[in-house]
Design brief:
The chain is of the alpha/beta class and 318 residues long. The chain has 2 domains: 3-191, inorganic pyrophosphatase (n-terminal core); 195-317, Diaminopimelate Epimerase, Chain A, domain 1 (Roll). The protein has helices at residues 3-8, 24-40, 93-98, 127-132, 142-155, 166-176, 182-191, 195-206, 223-229, 239-244, 275-281, 299-317; strands at residues 13-17, 45-49, 77-81, 101-106, 117-120, 209-211, 216-221, 251-259, 262-269, 285-286, 290-296. It has a 6-stranded mixed beta sheet with strand order 6-7-8-9-11-10. Strands 2-1-3-4-5 form a 5-stranded parallel beta sheet. Strand 1, helix 2 and strand 2 (45-49) form a beta-alpha-beta unit. The longest helix is centred in the last third of the chain and has 19 residues, at 299-317. The model has no long low-confidence stretch (mean pLDDT 96).
């Protein structure tokens, strides 16, 4: 019996939490666990708390059951998925602090081991892959498989990122065998964009700038631009990955303004730069090739501060 299942069996109520600004792996892992508990442990009261998950994941079973606002409540067990630190739980951290027991299931190398029990598979492609390893394979039905496949697809960039392993592909194959529409999951949740999403992507690419002799590229979107196009942060998915694919680029940076002199930074690298180390320095986290943080200052300040760390990484790998 897995650690997760043994802890679940001792609980009458479970709070399932992800990180702020939930992505595909976060939504997929939290709903994957919720659907699993609903089927295998119907006697347990299980609730998922996420802040503003994207509607593009509405096809996942249980999406309409996600609780977007908190209330005074205490759970026997709090399970945190795809979250590297307590502060990333946002306003729902109260359920983590008030729970009788806590478990963190994650795959980020920068995880701070903040729960009572921490299962951090830092070699896994995604939280969904790590979660799959904790579940009984025969009990994973189509609804759970759709959730887990979604998370794996999003955190591997459709099986392209270096975190993708033979085990990742093996698990993906087993999930496909459950009868999921894997092609539509990829197209609908990863590639398909609205007209305005294509517009803001085009704007970001048009105004991108290379530096360090073309080894790095960055683009930034200000709040006034987002308001002009009528988009939110959820509409900016995919911009950083397109920047990363620019020929000759080792490290890509994408910034969007979240407040006065404050930017959310996404970083991607190819082979030489450990962006998780850079993100951690500025209070963020993530993976060796994909990470992020929040930084203060002007766009010029942010890029200058990041450039110094990128240069050190490039020098160390040369």
């Amino acid at each position: 019996m897995s650690v997760l299942e043994s802890m679940v069996q001792e609980a009458a109520s479970v709070a399932i939490l992800g990180h702020i600004h939930p992505d595909g792996d976060c939504v997929g892992s939290t709903l994957g666990l919720w659907n699993y508990l609903r089927r295998e442990y119907p006697q347990i009261q299980a609730d998922v708390y996420l802040k503003d998950p994207s509607e593009k994941f509405a096809y996942l079973s249980g999406f309409n059951k996600i609780l977007r606002h908190g209330e005074e409540k205490e759970y026997d067990l709090c399970i945190c998925l795809d979250c590297g630190s307590e502060d990333r739980l946002g306003e729902f951290a109260c359920y983590f602090r008030n729970a009788k027991k806590s478990l963190c299931l994650d795959h980020h190398v920068t995880n701070t081991r903040f729960a009572q029990v921490n299962l951090v598979a830092d070699g896994a492609s995604s939280a969904c892959e790590a979660l799959y390893e904790q579940l009984r394979e025969e009990a994973v039905d189509k609804t759970v498989a759709e959730c887990l496949y979604t998370g794996i697809v999003h955190d591997t960039g459709v099986f392209k990122f270096s975190s993708t392993s033979s085990r990742t592909m093996e698990i993906a194959g087993k999930l496909m065998a459950k009868g999921i529409d894997f092609g539509e999951i990829i197209d609908g949740s990863f590639y398909r964009k609205t007209y305005v999403q294509n517009q803001i992507l085009g704007r970001a690419l048009l105004e991108s700038i290379t530096f360090m002799d073309g080894k790095c590229i960055f683009s930034a979107i200000k709040k006034k631009d987002m308001e002009f196009y009528g988009v939110t942060s959820k509409d900016l998915d995919g911009i950083i990955d397109q920047l990363r694919l620019t020929e000759g680029v080792e490290c890509a940076l994408f910034l969007y303004e979240t407040g006065p002199q404050e930017y959310k930074v996404s970083m991607r690298s190819q082979k030489q730069v450990d962006v998780s180390r850079i993100a951690a320095y500025f209070g963020g986290g993530g993976h060796v090739r994909a990470a992020g943080c929040t930084m203060s200052g002007s766009i010029h300040d942010v890029i200058n501060n990041l450039a110094g760390h990128i240069a050190k990484e490039l020098e160390a790998s040369s």
